[in-house]
Q: What sequence folds into this?
C-alpha cells in the first residue's frame, strides 16, 4: 500500500529476467514453494430461484380459507372479521420476508460477481504451476491476477448492506463485506509475491510473506461468508442454497 492507505497498482510491463534460466533443481524447488502457497478458493453456491410473493400469499390465503370453513366460521361474523385481520397481517409479514430475501439474493449475486474473478485468477495460476510451468506464462498470469484482484478489492469496498435490515443484521453483513474485500486484497498481494518468486526472488522472507498472504486470503474468505450468512439468518433470510 502507498502512504495514503490505498493499495498500490501493479507496474506495467516487466518480464522475468531469469525465469527461463532456472536449473532443473531450481524448478523443482520453485514448484514446491509455489504449490505449497496456493490455496484454492471454494466456489460459493448459486442463488436459488424463489416463488413470487403473490404466489406465496395466494397459497396461504387458500389454506386459511379452507381452515376457516373446517371450523364452521360464518362469513361476516366476528370470528371471520378477526381472522380476516390476522390474514392481512400474515400477508404483510410474508411480503416483507420476500422483500428481505430478494435483497439478500441481489447482495449475494453481487458479492459473487466481484469475488469470483479474483479467485479464478488464483486458480488459473495454480493450474499453470501444477504443470511445472515457471516461465513467462506463469509470470504474466500472476501479474494479470494482481490487476484482477485489485479490481475486485475496489468493487467490494464500495458495497454496503441493505438499508432495510435490522441494525444487528446490517452490522453482520457489513463485517462480512469488509472481510470479502480483505480477501481480495490479500490475494492481490499474494499475486505480487508469486510473480517475484517466479522471477527468481526465493529469499525466505519473500516466500514467508507470500505464504502469509495466502493464509490471510483463506481466513478472510471464511469470515466473508460467515458474516453475510449470520446477517441473513438474523433477518430471516438465507444466502445461496441454504
A:
Amino acid at each position: 500500500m502507498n502512504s495514503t492507505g490505498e493499495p498500490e497498482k501493479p507496474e506495467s510491463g516487466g518480464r522475468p529476467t531469469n525465469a527461463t534460466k532456472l536449473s532443473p533443481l531450481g524448478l523443482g524447488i520453485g514448484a514446491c514453494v509455489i504449490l505449497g502457497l496456493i490455496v484454492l478458493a471454494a466456489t460459493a453456491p448459486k442463488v436459488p430461484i424463489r416463488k413470487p410473493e403473490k404466489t406465496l400469499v395466494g397459497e396461504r390465503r387458500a389454506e386459511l380459507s379452507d381452515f376457516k370453513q373446517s371450523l364452521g366460521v360464518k362469513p361476516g361474523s366476528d370470528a371471520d372479521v378477526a381472522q380476516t385481520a390476522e390474514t392481512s397481517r400474515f400477508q404483510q409479514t410474508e411480503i416483507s420476508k420476500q422483500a428481505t430475501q430478494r435483497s439478500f439474493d441481489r447482495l449475494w449475486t453481487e458479492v459473487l460477481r466481484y469475488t469470483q474473478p479474483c479467485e479464478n485468477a488464483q486458480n488459473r495460476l495454480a493450474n499453470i504451476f501444477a504443470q511445472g510451468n515457471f516461465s513467462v506464462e506463469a509470470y504474466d498470469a500472476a501479474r494479470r491476477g494482481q490487476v484482477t484482484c485489485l479490481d475486485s478489492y475496489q468493487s467490494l469496498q464500495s458495497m454496503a448492506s441493505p438499508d432495510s435490515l435490522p441494525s444487528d443484521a446490517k452490522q453482520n453483513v457489513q463485517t462480512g463485506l469488509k472481510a470479502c474485500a480483505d480477501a481480495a486484497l490479500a490475494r492481490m498481494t499474494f499475486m505480487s509475491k508469486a510473480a517475484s518468486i517466479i522471477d527468481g526472488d526465493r529469499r525466505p522472507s519473500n516466500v514467508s510473506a507470500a505464504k502469509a498472504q495466502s493464509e490471510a486470503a483463506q481466513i478472510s474468505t471464511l469470515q466473508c461468508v460467515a458474516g453475510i450468512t449470520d446477517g441473513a439468518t438474523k433477518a430471516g433470510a438465507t444466502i445461496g442454497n441454504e
